[in-house]
Amino acid sequence: MSNTPKERYSIGELADAGGVSRRTVRYYVQRGLLSPPTGLGRSAHYDAAHLARLIRVRQLQQAGVPLEEIAARLDDVPLADSGPRPGVAPAHRAAPATRWQRLTLADGVELSVRDGALDPTTLDALMKAIGESLVPPTKEHDDVQ
Q1: Domains of the chain: which residue ranges?
Q2: Residue 22: how many CB atoms within 10 A of its CB?
Q3: What confidence score (pLDDT) does residue 121 get?
C-alpha cells in the first residue's frame, strides 16, 4: 500500500483519514473551514488539499484555538479585518450567521422562519391561517359535510 495521499476521497474516507466524523466534515464545510466537495450527490468527492486542511483544523482545535480564529488563520485574514485584503482571495469564508425564529403552531407542529423573511403583519396572518387550519373539526362541522 502506498503512503502517497489519494487523489479522491468520499466523505467517509476523508472523515476517517482526518480523524473526525462525517458530521464534523459537513459542519466544517458549512462554517467555511473546508471548501465543498467537487461534484454533486454520489459523485461528490474531496481531494488531498481538503485532507490537509482538515488535519490542520483539527490540530489547531486540539491546541484550543476557537473555530473563528482557525478560519481567520487558515484564510490568512486577521480577526479584526472584516473584509478580504486586496490581492488575497480567502479560500473559504463562512457565510454570516442566519437567525431563525421557531414558532410553535400546535403540539408537534412548528414553523421555522428566517429573521426578516416576513414582515410582522404577514407573519401574524400566516400564523393565524395555519392555526385555524389546525383546529380539529367539531361535531357541528362533521354534520355539515
Answers
A1: 11-75, 100-136
A2: 13
A3: 84
> 91 or 100: whose pLDDT is higher?
100
Query: C-alpha distances in angstroms, 17 versus 51, 58, 74, 130?
Result: 7, 12, 20, 47
Give the three-class secondary structure for 32. coil
Q: Alpha-carbon distance 37 to 46, whole Å?
A: 5
Q: How far is CA 113 from the centre of its chain?
A: 16
Number of Cβ within a 10 Å radius of residue 103 = 14
pTM of this structure: 0.49
How many CB atoms are located within 10 Å of the residue 24 CB? 18
Class of domain 11-75 as given by CATH: mainly alpha
Between CA 105 and CA 131 the distance in angstroms is: 6
DSSP secondary structure, 49-98, as one string: HHHHHHHHHHHHHHTT--HHHHHHHHHT--TT--SPPTT---S--PPPP-
| CB proximity list for 22: less than 8 A, separation 6 or greater | 11, 12, 15
